[in-house]
Design brief:
Elements: E1 3-12, E2 15-25, E3 31-35, H1 40-43, H2 45-55, E4 64-70, H3 82-92, E5 103-105, E6 107-108, E7 114-115, H4 120-129, E8 134-138, H5 142-145, E9 152-156, H6 159-165, H7 189-199, H8 210-222, E10 226-229, H9 236-242, H10 252-264, E11 279-280, H11 288-291, E12 293-294, E13 300-301, H12 303-306, E14 311-315, H13 322-327, H14 329-334, E15 336-341, E16 344-349, E17 353-358, H15 377-384, H16 389-392, E18 397-400, H17 406-410, H18 418-436, H19 449-453, H20 460-471, H21 477-493, H22 501-512
Parallel strand pairs: 3-4, 5-8, 8-9, 10-17, 10-18, 11-14, 14-17
Antiparallel strand pairs: 1-2, 2-4, 6-7, 12-13, 15-16
Length: 517
């Protein structure tokens, strides 16, 4: 019996499943049968594979070729199975050897070139986790595959190189001519420096708004959610865009998570580990699939998952679809998104910092005395009530911004630079890691309410204003916990071992200040 075996990986969300590729050569008329729930793009692999093998000088058998993808009950999609299928077919014909325990992840071109595929990092992580360390990928995917430290990665540019490495007869293999890379004109040093300077954003760009700057610093230090209400031009967008700049670099584990998510979307062309927290700012016309995730077949990650371990900024928040905003409530609590579709269920991590920005009314002029605002009280209430109470109850810091004063805007005074603020944030994060390590948490925003009420319980004299607010229904039970988390962050920023009554009062003020009506 002529039977060849190789391995590939099928991705369902970020979860990779090992797929055994079996190839059998029969004694009947020529045919190519692909079994195991392949989708349309995978069914097209039959013609790609035949052409690629022929142009590589090692054509497939002219007898009936049956390829089975095991387990047959797992849906398979995409072109990442191409190389595994052709190597199994060639192994069945005896043209290659030693491919049985190797995982092949690459798409084939008609000329036999290996093309990169999306999701290499989670695929290699899944293969190594299942005990398969020998991985073959396209040359363009090499850097990303090698991010998995225990993987034995081999990268090739063509099918001919792969079959030669696995014992094919060199006299029959047609190696493609080497490609000569085009010489790129180096950028002018002066223009490069000016571009970097023009694109740099810094906290010192913010004129005035001391309270808002402090709120952004608290949000960064404790990974808290933030909402800013203010007129156009008050600096809401500038503050949100500068939040990632004061966040610390991602740890190794978190960087792998973030890189894996962006690998699914083909957003990591250089194959580098993403050390900086991501920043996602979808337009308010974005659909639920674009923000939450979705699409045909297995759901793809949306902006909420791409913002994992970073910032999801929703500018003009009331203009988003209500169901999109309400769908964010689950990841705000659990840190993940589970998307159920007819084609399958995909789970993506989504532990992001939510930043909402909105005007005080539809026209945006209801700030200060509001004498220029033409909106009725009903219009203002309807506009603000597009954000539901349960959603706002999950936002730790809620503040109102006023217009920038003239002396702050033209006076020439500048605030602290991002580097200075980031240093304080880093110190606060270190204090949190040390204190919360016994509870399996890294930031104050992750601390469970039970821990706040038991192991980290504060004296009643410290929490007295918060207790009164709970009794008067000014905050909910969830809000009580969130105010304490913010109070702990304020304490960490000030270098204190525990919050004082003033810290709790400050955290409470950020949550219960008057809202627009």
């Amino acid at each position: 019996m002529a039977l060849g075996r190789t391995y590939a990986v099928s991705l369902v969300g970020l979860n990779g499943h090992m797929v055994e590729v079996e190839a059998d050569i029969g004694q009947t008329l020529p045919a190519f049968v692909l079994l195991g729930l392949p989708d349309a793009s995978l069914n097209e692999a039959k013609d790609r594979i035949r052409a690629a093998a022929r142009n590589a000088g090692i054509p497939l058998s002219r007898r009936k070729l049956t390829v089975n993808l095991v387990p047959a009950s797992l849906p398979k999609r995409g072109s990442a199975f191409d190389l595994a299928i052709v190597m199994a077919a060639l192994a069945a014909a005896g043209d290659v050897r030693g491919a049985r325990d190797t995982v092949f992840l690459a798409e084939l071109g008609l000329d036999g070139k290996l093309r990169p595929v999306r999701g290499i990092l989670p695929s290699v992580m899944a293969a190594v986790g299942a005990g398969h360390r020998r991985i073959v990928v396209a040359l363009a995917n090499q850097a990303e595959a090698e991010l998995v430290p225990t993987a034995e990665v081999r990268a090739f540019s063509s099918l001919a190189e792969v079959v030669l490495a696995f014992g094919a007869d060199p006299s029959s293999v047609a190696l493609p001519p080497p490609e000569v890379p085009a010489a790129a004109e180096p950028p002018h040093p002066a223009s490069t420096a000016s571009t970097v300077a023009a694109n740099a954003v810094d906290m010192s760009d913010i004129a005035g708004q001391a309270e808002a700057r402090f709120a952004v610093e608290i949000a960064a230090a404790g990974a808290h959610h933030l909402m800013m209400v203010g007129p156009p031009g008050a600096g809401k967008t500038m503050l949100a865009e500068r939040l990632p700049g004061i966040l610390p670099d991602l740890s190794d584990d978190h960087a792998m998570e973030v890189t894996a998510i962006h690998s699914l979307g083909g957003e990591n062309p250089n194959g580098e580990l993403r050390r900086r927290p991501p920043f996602e700012s979808p337009h308010h016309t974005a659909t639920a699939a674009a923000i939450i995730g979705g699409g045909s077949g297995i759901p793809r990650p949306g902006a909420a998952s791409r913002a994992h371990r970073g910032v999801l900024f929703l500018d003009e928040a009331p203009e988003y679809e209500r169901r999109v905003l309400e769908a964010l409530r689950e990841p705000l609590e659990s840190g993940k998104l589970v998307l159920h579709r007819a084609a399958g269920t995909a789970s993506y991590p989504a532990r992001f910092q939510l930043v909402l920005a909105l005007n005080p009314c539809p026209c945006g002029l209801a700030s200060g005395k509001g004498i220029d605002c033409q909106c009725t009280a009903q219009q203002r209430r309807r506009y603000f009530n597009r954000l539901s109470g349960p959603l706002l109850d999950r936002v730790d810091l809620q503040l109102s911004l006023q217009r920038v004063a003239l002396h702050d805007y033209v006076g020439g005074a500048t605030g602290e630079r991002s580097a200075t603020v980031a240093a304080r944030v880093c110190q606060a994060r270190m204090a949190q890691r040390v204190r919360l390590a016994p509870y399996g948490c890294a930031t104050n925003s992750e601390v469970r309410g039970r821990i706040l009420r038991e192991q980290l319980r504060l004296p009643r004299t410290v929490t007295a204003p918060l207790d009164r607010a709970l009794e008067r229904s000014l905050v909910s039970a969830r809000g009580w916990d969130r105010v304490l988390r913010v109070a702990w962050t304020i304490s960490d920023l000030r270098g204190q071992p525990a919050p004082l009554a003033a810290d709790v009062a400050c955290a409470l003020a950020f949550r219960t200040q008057e809202k627009p009506v």
